[in-house]
Amino acid sequence: MCLGVPGRVAVWIDQDPLMALAEIDFGGLRKRCQMACVPEARVGDYVLVHAGVAITIIDEVAAEKLLATLADLGEMNPQEASFL
Amino acid sequence: MKFIDEYRQPALIQRNLAELRQAITQRWVIMDVCGGQTHSLLRHGLEAALEDVLELVHGPGCPVCVTPAEAIDAAAELARRPNVIVASFGDMLRVPGQRGSLLQARAEGAKIRIVYSPMDAVELAASQPDQQIVFFGVGFETTVPATALALLHARQRRLTNFSLLVSHVRVEPAMRAVMQSAETRVQGFLAAGHVCTVTGYEHYHSFVAKFSVPVVVTGFEPLDLINGLFECVQSLEKGQPRLSNQYERSVSPTGNLRAQRLMEQVYEIVDAPWRGFGRIAGGGLAIRPEFREFDARVRFQLADAVCSPDGDCRSKEVMLGVIKPPECPLFGNRCTPETPVGAPMVSSEGACSAYYRYSRSNEVTS
After folding, report:
1. How far is it, in rounded angstroms, from Cα B20 to Cα B22?
2. Do B102 and B156 share a structural domain?
3. Which of B79, B84, B105, B351 sits between 20 and 30 A of A26, alpha carbons compared?
4. CATH number, residue B77
Protein backbone atom coordinates (compact mmCIF):
# COMPACT_ATOMS: atom_id res chain seq x y z
CA MET A 1 0.00 0.00 0.00
CA CYS A 2 2.68 2.49 1.04
CA LEU A 3 4.73 1.52 -1.99
CA GLY A 4 7.06 4.29 -3.15
CA VAL A 5 8.67 4.03 -6.55
CA PRO A 6 11.89 5.93 -7.33
CA GLY A 7 11.97 7.78 -10.64
CA ARG A 8 14.02 10.52 -12.31
CA VAL A 9 12.53 13.94 -13.07
CA ALA A 10 12.63 14.07 -16.89
CA VAL A 11 10.81 17.31 -17.69
CA TRP A 12 8.75 19.87 -15.83
CA ILE A 13 5.30 20.51 -17.29
CA ASP A 14 3.61 22.90 -14.85
CA GLN A 15 5.18 24.81 -11.95
CA ASP A 16 1.99 26.20 -10.43
CA PRO A 17 2.23 25.58 -6.63
CA LEU A 18 -0.97 23.51 -6.47
CA MET A 19 -1.10 21.96 -9.94
CA ALA A 20 2.67 21.28 -10.22
CA LEU A 21 3.31 18.49 -12.70
CA ALA A 22 6.38 16.78 -14.14
CA GLU A 23 7.14 13.80 -16.30
CA ILE A 24 9.02 11.16 -14.30
CA ASP A 25 11.12 8.43 -15.85
CA PHE A 26 10.80 5.05 -14.11
CA GLY A 27 13.55 3.01 -15.76
CA GLY A 28 12.35 3.94 -19.25
CA LEU A 29 8.64 4.18 -18.52
CA ARG A 30 7.47 7.79 -18.28
CA LYS A 31 4.51 8.98 -16.24
CA ARG A 32 3.15 12.36 -15.27
CA CYS A 33 3.32 12.93 -11.51
CA GLN A 34 2.14 15.62 -9.14
CA MET A 35 5.00 17.75 -7.82
CA ALA A 36 3.24 20.05 -5.31
CA CYS A 37 5.16 18.45 -2.43
CA VAL A 38 8.59 18.73 -4.10
CA PRO A 39 8.56 21.98 -6.15
CA GLU A 40 12.31 22.36 -5.63
CA ALA A 41 13.09 19.14 -7.55
CA ARG A 42 15.28 19.68 -10.59
CA VAL A 43 15.46 17.75 -13.84
CA GLY A 44 17.73 14.78 -13.17
CA ASP A 45 16.82 14.51 -9.47
CA TYR A 46 15.31 11.25 -8.28
CA VAL A 47 11.99 11.48 -6.48
CA LEU A 48 9.94 8.89 -4.62
CA VAL A 49 6.45 8.60 -6.09
CA HIS A 50 3.43 7.25 -4.25
CA ALA A 51 -0.06 7.14 -5.77
CA GLY A 52 0.93 9.57 -8.50
CA VAL A 53 2.41 12.13 -6.11
CA ALA A 54 6.15 12.74 -5.62
CA ILE A 55 6.59 12.81 -1.83
CA THR A 56 10.32 13.38 -1.48
CA ILE A 57 13.55 14.00 -3.36
CA ILE A 58 15.90 11.06 -2.85
CA ASP A 59 19.17 12.10 -1.23
CA GLU A 60 21.78 10.42 -3.44
CA VAL A 61 24.65 11.22 -1.06
CA ALA A 62 22.83 9.50 1.82
CA ALA A 63 22.05 6.54 -0.46
CA GLU A 64 25.71 6.09 -1.38
CA LYS A 65 26.82 6.51 2.22
CA LEU A 66 24.53 3.69 3.37
CA LEU A 67 25.66 1.36 0.59
CA ALA A 68 29.30 2.05 1.46
CA THR A 69 28.58 1.30 5.13
CA LEU A 70 26.77 -1.92 4.27
CA ALA A 71 29.60 -3.00 1.97
CA ASP A 72 32.23 -2.26 4.67
CA LEU A 73 30.27 -3.94 7.41
CA GLY A 74 29.88 -7.04 5.32
CA GLU A 75 33.67 -7.27 5.00
CA MET A 76 34.52 -6.92 8.68
CA ASN A 77 35.09 -9.94 10.80
CA PRO A 78 32.36 -10.69 13.34
CA GLN A 79 34.41 -9.58 16.37
CA GLU A 80 34.98 -6.13 14.93
CA ALA A 81 31.35 -5.79 13.96
CA SER A 82 30.15 -6.59 17.46
CA PHE A 83 31.93 -3.49 18.80
CA LEU A 84 30.18 -1.09 16.44
CA MET B 1 16.08 0.11 -11.29
CA LYS B 2 18.23 2.66 -9.47
CA PHE B 3 17.61 2.85 -5.69
CA ILE B 4 16.13 -0.65 -5.74
CA ASP B 5 18.61 -3.09 -7.30
CA GLU B 6 21.56 -1.93 -5.17
CA TYR B 7 19.66 -2.92 -2.05
CA ARG B 8 18.97 -6.44 -3.30
CA GLN B 9 22.52 -7.66 -3.95
CA PRO B 10 22.56 -11.30 -2.81
CA ALA B 11 26.19 -11.35 -1.65
CA LEU B 12 25.77 -8.19 0.43
CA ILE B 13 22.50 -9.50 1.89
CA GLN B 14 24.21 -12.72 3.02
CA ARG B 15 27.17 -10.90 4.53
CA ASN B 16 25.03 -8.37 6.39
CA LEU B 17 22.68 -11.08 7.62
CA ALA B 18 25.68 -12.91 9.04
CA GLU B 19 26.83 -9.72 10.81
CA LEU B 20 23.36 -9.16 12.20
CA ARG B 21 23.22 -12.69 13.59
CA GLN B 22 26.58 -12.17 15.27
CA ALA B 23 25.32 -9.05 17.03
CA ILE B 24 22.38 -10.84 18.69
CA THR B 25 22.74 -12.40 22.16
CA GLN B 26 19.06 -12.91 22.96
CA ARG B 27 15.85 -13.42 21.02
CA TRP B 28 14.48 -9.89 20.94
CA VAL B 29 10.90 -9.25 19.81
CA ILE B 30 10.88 -6.58 17.09
CA MET B 31 7.77 -5.27 15.36
CA ASP B 32 7.49 -3.73 11.91
CA VAL B 33 4.43 -1.56 11.47
CA CYS B 34 4.19 -1.32 7.72
CA GLY B 35 2.63 -3.98 5.54
CA GLY B 36 5.23 -3.26 2.86
CA GLN B 37 7.98 -4.21 5.28
CA THR B 38 6.09 -7.31 6.46
CA HIS B 39 5.70 -8.39 2.86
CA SER B 40 9.35 -7.74 2.05
CA LEU B 41 10.66 -9.55 5.18
CA LEU B 42 8.69 -12.65 4.22
CA ARG B 43 9.08 -12.44 0.46
CA HIS B 44 12.86 -12.16 0.64
CA GLY B 45 13.13 -14.92 3.25
CA LEU B 46 14.63 -12.64 5.91
CA GLU B 47 12.24 -13.67 8.65
CA ALA B 48 12.98 -17.34 8.04
CA ALA B 49 16.72 -16.62 7.95
CA LEU B 50 16.55 -14.97 11.38
CA GLU B 51 13.85 -17.06 12.97
CA ASP B 52 16.15 -18.88 15.39
CA VAL B 53 17.72 -15.68 16.76
CA LEU B 54 15.05 -12.95 16.48
CA GLU B 55 11.28 -12.86 16.82
CA LEU B 56 9.81 -10.60 14.18
CA VAL B 57 6.18 -9.64 14.69
CA HIS B 58 4.05 -7.61 12.35
CA GLY B 59 1.89 -4.78 13.60
CA PRO B 60 -1.35 -3.31 12.29
CA GLY B 61 0.48 -1.72 9.37
CA CYS B 62 -1.71 -2.50 6.42
CA PRO B 63 -4.23 0.29 5.84
CA VAL B 64 -6.19 -1.79 3.35
CA CYS B 65 -6.58 -4.48 6.01
CA VAL B 66 -7.71 -2.16 8.81
CA THR B 67 -10.29 -0.29 6.73
CA PRO B 68 -13.63 -1.05 8.44
CA ALA B 69 -15.81 -3.56 6.60
CA GLU B 70 -18.64 -1.02 6.85
CA ALA B 71 -16.66 1.49 4.78
CA ILE B 72 -16.28 -1.11 2.02
CA ASP B 73 -20.02 -1.85 2.18
CA ALA B 74 -20.73 1.88 1.97
CA ALA B 75 -18.52 2.22 -1.11
CA ALA B 76 -20.26 -0.74 -2.76
CA GLU B 77 -23.66 0.69 -1.92
CA LEU B 78 -22.73 4.07 -3.45
CA ALA B 79 -21.46 2.38 -6.61
CA ARG B 80 -24.88 0.76 -7.07
CA ARG B 81 -26.67 4.12 -7.06
CA PRO B 82 -27.59 5.63 -10.41
CA ASN B 83 -25.07 8.13 -11.77
CA VAL B 84 -22.43 7.33 -9.17
CA ILE B 85 -19.02 5.85 -10.01
CA VAL B 86 -16.66 4.76 -7.22
CA ALA B 87 -12.93 4.83 -7.96
CA SER B 88 -10.29 3.27 -5.73
CA PHE B 89 -6.86 1.65 -5.60
CA GLY B 90 -6.67 -1.87 -7.04
CA ASP B 91 -5.73 -3.51 -3.75
CA MET B 92 -8.94 -2.23 -2.15
CA LEU B 93 -11.16 -4.19 -4.52
CA ARG B 94 -10.57 -7.73 -3.24
CA VAL B 95 -11.07 -6.83 0.41
CA PRO B 96 -14.39 -8.19 1.68
CA GLY B 97 -16.80 -6.00 3.57
CA GLN B 98 -19.62 -7.60 5.48
CA ARG B 99 -21.57 -7.91 2.26
CA GLY B 100 -18.83 -8.98 -0.15
CA SER B 101 -15.99 -7.15 -1.88
CA LEU B 102 -16.03 -4.28 -4.36
CA LEU B 103 -14.93 -6.79 -7.00
CA GLN B 104 -18.06 -8.84 -6.35
CA ALA B 105 -20.18 -5.68 -6.37
CA ARG B 106 -18.65 -4.77 -9.74
CA ALA B 107 -19.47 -8.21 -11.12
CA GLU B 108 -23.07 -7.52 -10.08
CA GLY B 109 -23.13 -4.26 -12.00
CA ALA B 110 -21.90 -1.68 -9.49
CA LYS B 111 -19.83 1.02 -11.19
CA ILE B 112 -16.32 0.69 -9.77
CA ARG B 113 -13.09 1.83 -11.42
CA ILE B 114 -9.52 1.02 -10.45
CA VAL B 115 -7.23 4.05 -10.53
CA TYR B 116 -3.52 4.43 -9.86
CA SER B 117 -3.83 7.86 -8.30
CA PRO B 118 -6.64 9.90 -6.70
CA MET B 119 -5.83 12.45 -9.37
CA ASP B 120 -7.10 9.99 -12.00
CA ALA B 121 -10.47 10.14 -10.24
CA VAL B 122 -10.42 13.94 -10.52
CA GLU B 123 -9.81 13.57 -14.28
CA LEU B 124 -12.69 11.10 -14.46
CA ALA B 125 -14.94 13.68 -12.79
CA ALA B 126 -13.82 16.34 -15.29
CA SER B 127 -14.52 14.06 -18.24
CA GLN B 128 -17.90 12.78 -16.98
CA PRO B 129 -19.77 15.83 -15.63
CA ASP B 130 -23.10 13.95 -15.53
CA GLN B 131 -21.71 11.33 -13.12
CA GLN B 132 -20.84 11.68 -9.43
CA ILE B 133 -17.28 10.40 -8.94
CA VAL B 134 -16.42 9.17 -5.44
CA PHE B 135 -12.81 8.35 -4.66
CA PHE B 136 -12.63 5.70 -1.94
CA GLY B 137 -9.34 6.67 -0.32
CA VAL B 138 -7.57 4.55 2.24
CA GLY B 139 -4.03 4.72 3.50
CA PHE B 140 -1.54 5.94 6.07
CA GLU B 141 0.09 9.35 6.07
CA THR B 142 2.00 8.32 2.92
CA THR B 143 -1.22 8.45 0.91
CA VAL B 144 -2.93 11.37 2.64
CA PRO B 145 -1.18 14.14 0.65
CA ALA B 146 -2.44 12.52 -2.57
CA THR B 147 -6.11 12.56 -1.55
CA ALA B 148 -5.74 16.07 -0.06
CA LEU B 149 -4.25 17.26 -3.33
CA ALA B 150 -7.05 15.61 -5.31
CA LEU B 151 -9.66 17.44 -3.24
CA LEU B 152 -7.88 20.77 -3.69
CA HIS B 153 -7.54 20.19 -7.45
CA ALA B 154 -11.25 19.41 -7.68
CA ARG B 155 -12.06 22.63 -5.82
CA GLN B 156 -9.70 24.69 -7.98
CA ARG B 157 -11.31 23.21 -11.10
CA ARG B 158 -14.80 23.84 -9.66
CA LEU B 159 -15.78 20.20 -10.05
CA THR B 160 -19.04 19.70 -8.21
CA ASN B 161 -19.21 15.98 -9.07
CA PHE B 162 -16.12 14.84 -7.15
CA SER B 163 -16.05 13.68 -3.54
CA LEU B 164 -13.92 11.57 -1.19
CA LEU B 165 -14.94 8.61 0.94
CA VAL B 166 -11.87 8.39 3.15
CA SER B 167 -10.61 5.88 5.65
CA HIS B 168 -7.21 7.36 6.43
CA VAL B 169 -5.30 6.03 9.42
CA ARG B 170 -2.29 7.25 11.40
CA VAL B 171 0.62 5.04 12.33
CA GLU B 172 1.90 6.38 15.64
CA PRO B 173 -1.39 6.05 17.58
CA ALA B 174 -1.49 2.38 16.53
CA MET B 175 2.06 1.90 17.85
CA ARG B 176 0.95 3.50 21.12
CA ALA B 177 -2.02 1.13 21.25
CA VAL B 178 0.39 -1.79 20.83
CA MET B 179 2.61 -0.58 23.69
CA GLN B 180 -0.35 0.21 25.94
CA SER B 181 -1.76 -3.29 25.55
CA ALA B 182 -1.21 -5.34 28.69
CA GLU B 183 -0.26 -8.32 26.54
CA THR B 184 2.44 -6.64 24.48
CA ARG B 185 5.82 -8.37 24.14
CA VAL B 186 7.26 -5.88 21.64
CA GLN B 187 10.76 -4.64 22.58
CA GLY B 188 11.63 -2.56 19.52
CA PHE B 189 10.07 -1.08 16.38
CA LEU B 190 10.96 -0.62 12.76
CA ALA B 191 9.07 2.57 11.89
CA ALA B 192 7.38 2.76 8.50
CA GLY B 193 9.82 4.49 6.13
CA HIS B 194 7.42 6.00 3.64
CA VAL B 195 5.07 7.30 6.31
CA CYS B 196 8.10 9.06 7.83
CA THR B 197 8.97 10.51 4.42
CA VAL B 198 5.84 12.63 4.93
CA THR B 199 5.71 13.01 8.73
CA GLY B 200 9.41 13.00 9.62
CA TYR B 201 10.35 11.19 12.83
CA GLU B 202 10.94 13.81 15.49
CA HIS B 203 7.56 13.02 17.05
CA TYR B 204 8.95 9.59 17.98
CA HIS B 205 11.31 11.10 20.59
CA SER B 206 8.48 11.22 23.12
CA PHE B 207 7.39 7.70 22.13
CA VAL B 208 10.88 6.30 22.74
CA ALA B 209 11.11 8.17 26.05
CA LYS B 210 7.66 7.07 27.24
CA PHE B 211 7.85 3.39 26.35
CA SER B 212 11.64 2.85 26.53
CA VAL B 213 11.78 1.00 23.22
CA PRO B 214 14.04 1.71 20.24
CA VAL B 215 12.38 3.05 17.10
CA VAL B 216 14.31 2.74 13.84
CA VAL B 217 13.04 4.45 10.69
CA THR B 218 13.55 1.76 8.07
CA GLY B 219 13.18 1.30 4.32
CA PHE B 220 11.72 -1.58 2.37
CA GLU B 221 14.47 -3.32 0.44
CA PRO B 222 16.23 -6.36 1.93
CA LEU B 223 19.41 -4.46 2.82
CA ASP B 224 17.36 -1.62 4.32
CA LEU B 225 15.49 -4.07 6.51
CA ILE B 226 18.63 -5.90 7.67
CA ASN B 227 20.23 -2.54 8.44
CA GLY B 228 17.17 -1.36 10.37
CA LEU B 229 17.11 -4.59 12.37
CA PHE B 230 20.85 -4.26 13.04
CA GLU B 231 20.38 -0.78 14.48
CA CYS B 232 17.40 -1.91 16.57
CA VAL B 233 19.32 -4.94 17.90
CA GLN B 234 22.34 -2.82 18.81
CA SER B 235 20.14 -0.41 20.70
CA LEU B 236 18.54 -3.32 22.59
CA GLU B 237 21.83 -5.09 23.28
CA LYS B 238 23.29 -1.92 24.79
CA GLY B 239 20.15 -1.34 26.84
CA GLN B 240 19.89 2.16 25.39
CA PRO B 241 16.58 2.59 23.57
CA ARG B 242 17.07 5.27 20.97
CA LEU B 243 15.46 6.78 17.91
CA SER B 244 17.41 6.50 14.69
CA ASN B 245 16.94 6.92 10.98
CA GLN B 246 18.27 4.19 8.70
CA TYR B 247 16.34 5.46 5.68
CA GLU B 248 18.13 8.76 5.27
CA ARG B 249 17.94 8.79 1.49
CA SER B 250 14.17 9.35 1.72
CA VAL B 251 13.44 10.58 5.24
CA SER B 252 14.50 13.81 6.95
CA PRO B 253 13.89 14.57 10.66
CA THR B 254 11.03 16.95 9.91
CA GLY B 255 9.62 15.11 6.88
CA ASN B 256 7.99 16.87 3.96
CA LEU B 257 6.52 20.09 5.34
CA ARG B 258 4.53 20.82 2.18
CA ALA B 259 2.92 17.40 2.33
CA GLN B 260 2.13 17.96 6.01
CA ARG B 261 0.54 21.33 5.23
CA LEU B 262 -1.69 19.71 2.58
CA MET B 263 -2.68 17.06 5.10
CA GLU B 264 -3.47 19.59 7.84
CA GLN B 265 -5.32 21.90 5.47
CA VAL B 266 -7.80 19.23 4.42
CA TYR B 267 -7.97 16.80 7.36
CA GLU B 268 -8.35 16.84 11.12
CA ILE B 269 -7.29 14.14 13.55
CA VAL B 270 -10.11 11.98 14.91
CA ASP B 271 -10.56 8.75 16.84
CA ALA B 272 -11.08 6.02 14.29
CA PRO B 273 -12.21 2.40 14.06
CA TRP B 274 -9.54 -0.04 12.87
CA ARG B 275 -10.78 -3.33 11.52
CA GLY B 276 -9.67 -6.20 13.72
CA PHE B 277 -8.32 -3.80 16.31
CA GLY B 278 -11.15 -1.58 17.49
CA ARG B 279 -11.26 2.17 18.00
CA ILE B 280 -7.89 3.93 18.28
CA ALA B 281 -7.65 7.38 19.89
CA GLY B 282 -6.35 9.84 17.31
CA GLY B 283 -5.97 6.91 14.92
CA GLY B 284 -7.60 8.47 11.87
CA LEU B 285 -8.28 11.56 9.80
CA ALA B 286 -11.56 13.16 8.77
CA ILE B 287 -12.24 15.83 6.16
CA ARG B 288 -12.45 19.27 7.84
CA PRO B 289 -15.90 20.89 8.00
CA GLU B 290 -14.85 23.64 5.55
CA PHE B 291 -14.44 20.97 2.87
CA ARG B 292 -17.61 19.07 3.72
CA GLU B 293 -19.02 19.58 0.22
CA PHE B 294 -16.27 17.16 -0.94
CA ASP B 295 -17.02 14.63 1.78
CA ALA B 296 -18.97 11.71 0.30
CA ARG B 297 -20.37 10.87 3.76
CA VAL B 298 -22.02 14.30 3.83
CA ARG B 299 -22.96 14.45 0.15
CA PHE B 300 -24.62 11.04 0.17
CA GLN B 301 -25.73 11.09 3.83
CA LEU B 302 -23.79 8.00 4.90
CA ALA B 303 -23.48 6.94 8.52
CA ASP B 304 -20.08 7.13 10.22
CA ALA B 305 -18.05 3.94 9.96
CA VAL B 306 -18.15 1.66 12.96
CA CYS B 307 -16.12 -1.44 13.51
CA SER B 308 -17.69 -4.82 14.03
CA PRO B 309 -15.50 -7.72 15.10
CA ASP B 310 -14.72 -10.35 12.47
CA GLY B 311 -16.18 -13.37 14.27
CA ASP B 312 -13.77 -15.50 16.28
CA CYS B 313 -10.67 -14.40 14.37
CA ARG B 314 -7.65 -13.52 16.53
CA SER B 315 -6.37 -10.71 14.35
CA LYS B 316 -6.08 -8.24 17.20
CA GLU B 317 -3.58 -10.50 18.96
CA VAL B 318 -1.71 -10.93 15.66
CA MET B 319 -1.52 -7.17 15.16
CA LEU B 320 -0.43 -6.62 18.76
CA GLY B 321 2.36 -9.12 18.20
CA VAL B 322 0.99 -11.42 20.91
CA ILE B 323 0.58 -14.42 18.59
CA LYS B 324 1.92 -15.39 15.18
CA PRO B 325 -0.63 -15.92 12.38
CA PRO B 326 -0.37 -19.75 12.37
CA GLU B 327 -1.37 -19.78 16.06
CA CYS B 328 -4.87 -18.63 15.12
CA PRO B 329 -7.15 -21.67 14.74
CA LEU B 330 -8.73 -20.20 11.61
CA PHE B 331 -5.40 -19.65 9.80
CA GLY B 332 -5.05 -21.63 6.60
CA ASN B 333 -8.33 -23.50 6.91
CA ARG B 334 -11.38 -21.26 7.34
CA CYS B 335 -9.26 -18.17 6.72
CA THR B 336 -7.17 -17.94 3.54
CA PRO B 337 -6.35 -15.09 1.11
CA GLU B 338 -9.19 -16.37 -1.10
CA THR B 339 -11.71 -16.45 1.76
CA PRO B 340 -10.33 -14.11 4.42
CA VAL B 341 -12.02 -13.85 7.81
CA GLY B 342 -9.90 -11.21 9.51
CA ALA B 343 -8.11 -7.98 8.69
CA PRO B 344 -4.51 -9.26 8.28
CA MET B 345 -5.60 -11.87 5.71
CA VAL B 346 -7.55 -9.53 3.43
CA SER B 347 -4.66 -7.90 1.58
CA SER B 348 -1.33 -9.30 0.37
CA GLU B 349 0.42 -6.92 2.78
CA GLY B 350 -1.42 -8.18 5.85
CA ALA B 351 0.65 -10.31 8.23
CA CYS B 352 -1.57 -13.41 7.92
CA SER B 353 -1.69 -13.23 4.14
CA ALA B 354 2.08 -12.74 3.85
CA TYR B 355 2.61 -15.73 6.16
CA TYR B 356 0.22 -17.83 4.14
CA ARG B 357 2.01 -17.00 0.89
CA TYR B 358 5.63 -17.09 1.95
CA SER B 359 6.07 -19.01 5.18
CA ARG B 360 6.77 -22.27 3.43
CA SER B 361 9.85 -20.79 1.80
CA ASN B 362 13.08 -20.72 3.78
CA GLU B 363 15.39 -19.33 1.13
CA VAL B 364 16.78 -15.82 1.21
CA THR B 365 16.09 -14.31 -2.16
CA SER B 366 16.86 -11.05 -3.83
Report:
1. 5
2. yes
3. B351
4. 3.40.50.11740
Give the integer Cα–Cα distance in Å for B224 and B218: 6
Residues of B in contact with A51 (CB under 8 A): 89, 116-118, 139, 143, 146
Q: Do A37 and B246 touch (CB under 8 A)?
A: no
Q: Confirm whether B342 is domain-assigned.
A: yes
- Determine whether the interchain pair B18/A1 forms a contact, defined as Cβ–Cβ distance below 8 Å: no
SS (H, E, C) chain A: CCCCEEEEEEEEEECCCCCCEEEEEECCEEEEEECCCCCCCCCCCEEEEECCEEEEECCHHHHHHHHHHHHHHHHCCHHHHHCC
Nearest chain B Cα to A79, which residue?
B22
Residue A81 pLDDT: 39
Domain identity same for B55 and B78:
no
Same domain, residue pair B38 and B74: no
Q: How far is B350 from chain A (nearest CA, A)?
A: 10
Same domain, B271 and B125: yes
Nearest-CB residue to A1 (from B4, B118, B349): B349
Task: Say if B121 falls within a structural domain.
Answer: yes
Indicate if B36 and B74 belong to the same structural domain: no
pLDDT for position A84? 32
Domains held by chain B: number = 2
Q: What is the pTM of this model?
A: 0.92
Distances (CA, A) of B344 to B326, B328, B336, B340: 12, 12, 10, 8
Q: In sequence order, what are the beta bridge partners of A12?
A: A22
pLDDT tens-digit profile of B107-149?
Answer: 999 999 999 999 999 999 999 999 999 999 999 999 999 999 9
What integer is the mean pLDDT of B222-238?
97
Chain A and chain B share a number of CB contacts under 8 A equal to 147
For residues B72 and B123, state if they share a domain.
yes
How far apart, in whole angstroms, are the C-alpha atoms of residue B132 and residue B163? 8
**Short-list B175, B181, B172, CA closest to B285:** B172
Residue B260 domain flag: yes
Look at B142 and A50 and tell me if their CB atoms are within 8 Å.
yes
Q: How far is A21 from chain B (nearest CA, A)?
A: 11
DSSP-derived secondary structure for B85-135 = EEEE-GGGSS-EETTEEHHHHHHTT--EEE-SSHHHHHHHHHH-TTSEEEE
Better pLDDT: B319 or B161: B161
Contacts of B256 in chain A (CB under 8 A): 37-38, 55-56
The verdict on B118 and B267 lying in the same domain is yes
Domain containing residue B104: 64-170+255-299
- Name all domains of chain A by residue range, CATH numbers in brackets: 5-79 (2.30.30.140)
